[in-house]
Amino acid sequence: EPEVTQTPSHQVTQMGQEVILRCVPISNHLYFYWYRQILGQKVEFLVSFYNNEISEKSEIFDDQFSVERPDGSNFTLKIRSTKLEDSAMYFCASSEPASYGSNSYEQYFGPGTRLTVT
Amino acid sequence: DQQVKQNSPSLSVQEGRISILNCDYTNSMFDYFLWYKKYPAEGPTFLISISSIKDKNEDGRFTVFLNKSAKHLSLHIVPSQPGDSAVYFCAASAGGSNYKLTFGKGTLLTVNP
């Protein structure tokens, strides 16, 4: 069964450093998302991406964040200068284009990258 | 800003009995609702969903009920199995062009053998 993969599984970085989190969405999916979950809190939407551009972003997704689909398979989240409060689990998700028998609402999540900023 | 609320942080049931997980929402623009299951150190796994034009959707042991007038949905698991023990998240989407999901805080379900 196809699945979303994410690397690395755990990233430790120092405050102020740049990090890139990588995701490989399911191959026929066209909608891509990043969410995060701070320990003990709910899963929060960060950004959605479709047709090579951001379709919506939350207020969390400020100028320090960027996303990119550098090739036909990877989807990346970059944090330019990490802060302590960026420590969280980051989940990538994807969904397929709406068509008969498919549903773009149903997002499939990767296993997450645990980002620890020290 | 809790647009999706799961007021029970935990639920414990006996194996073989019914588990009922509840979720309330406040945003009238939500038109699609989903339940996800999450084990520790894993990502959320899609379980079942329902469109706002329906009031029930069933998939095997899992049934989701939607009461639009009450802005309430519930997930029924019958019969419950120990492997169902996990955190269950309710999520909602207002559709549009991006399908972003708004999640509840989750309910930890424990099914005791």
What would your notes on this structure say?
The complex is a heterodimer of chains A (118) and B (113). Chain A is an all-beta fold and 118 residues long. The model of chain A has no long low-confidence stretch (mean pLDDT 92). In chain A, strands 2, 4, 5, 6, 9, 10 and 11 form a 7-stranded mixed beta sheet that branches. Chain A has a 4-stranded antiparallel beta sheet with strand order 1-3-8-7, with no helix packed on it. Chain A contains no helices and 11 strands. The radius of gyration of chain A is 14 Å and the shape is globular. Chain B is built from no helices and 11 strands. In chain B, strand 4 and strand 5 (45-51) form a beta hairpin. The mean pLDDT of chain B is 94. The chains are: A mainly beta (118), B mainly beta (113). At the A-B interface, strand 4, strand 5, strand 9 and strand 10 of A face strand 4, strand 5, strand 9 and strand 10 of B.
**SSE string of chain A:** EEEEEEEEEEE
Helix content of chain B: under 10%
Structural class given helices, strands, pairing of chain B? mainly beta
Number of strands of chain B: 11
Tell me the helix content of chain A: under 10%
**What is the CA-based Rg of chain B, rounded?**
13 Å
How many beta-strand segments of chain A? 11
Distance between the amino and carboxyl termini of chain B:
37 Å
Shape estimate of chain B: globular
Summing up helix and strand content along with how strands pair, one would put the structural category of chain A as mainly beta
Mean pLDDT of chain B: 94
Largest sheet geometry of chain A? 7 strands, mixed
- In DSSP terms (H or I, runs of 4 or more residues), the helix count of chain A works out at 0
Poorly predicted tracts of residues of chain B: none
Terminal Cα span of chain A? 37 Å
How large a portion of the residues of chain B is in β-strands, by DSSP E?
Answer: over 45%
Q: Major beta sheet of chain B, specifics? A: 6 strands, mixed
* Average pLDDT of chain A: 92
Approximately what portion of the residues of chain A adopt beta-strand conformation? over 45%
